Amino acid sequence: MTQRTDILSGIIIEDQQRLSLRELCEACAVHAEFITELVNEGVIEPTGIDRSHWVFSGVSLHRIRTAKRLQHDLGINLAGVALALELLDEMQQLRAQLYTLSGSEHE
């Protein structure tokens, strides 16, 4: 019997990391048109004067991957993805505030 060993590889990208449109497409396995649609929906915000000079943060990488999962797993359109990500961000902020408040009560 042959033993199979799978190797998982990846890249750790920090929030401060900057990615070009091409690098982001490769990292997320998406076409540039998908990223352009996400920019148009306000899901991610590049810096740069035009598409050929766009630069994205590491946060964009996470948001694109989440957007892909929402579309693929739940069949949500891009407008729905934008709304879902906005609500997820809001939940995260509220949890952080709650954590801060509950931590100050114990001091």
Could you characterize the architecture of this molecule?
This protein is mainly α. It has one domain: Multidrug-efflux Transporter Regulator, Chain: A, Domain 2 (Orthogonal Bundle), CATH 1.10.1660.10. Helices cover 59% and strands 6% of the residues. A two-stranded antiparallel ribbon has the order 1-2. Helix 3 crosses helix 4 (78-105). It is globular and about 50 Å long.
Main features:
107 residues; mainly alpha; Multidrug-efflux Transporter Regulator, Chain: A, Domain 2; two-stranded antiparallel ribbon; 4 helices; 2 strands; globular
Name the CATH architecture. Orthogonal Bundle
Helix content: 55-70%
Major beta sheet summary: 2 strands, antiparallel
Which whole number gives the mean pLDDT? Answer: 86
Please name the CATH topology. Multidrug-efflux Transporter Regulator, Chain: A, Domain 2
Runs in which pLDDT lies below 50 for 5 or more consecutive residues are none
Given helix and strand content, the structural type is mainly alpha
- Beta-strand share of residues: 5-15%
Strand line-up of the largest beta sheet: 1-2
Q: What is the helix/strand order? A: EHHEHH
Helix run count: 4
What count of domains describes the coordinates?
A: 1
Integer-rounded radius of gyration: 18 Å
Number of strands: 2
The CATH class, by name, is Mainly Alpha
The outline comes out as: globular
- N- to C-terminal distance: 59 Å
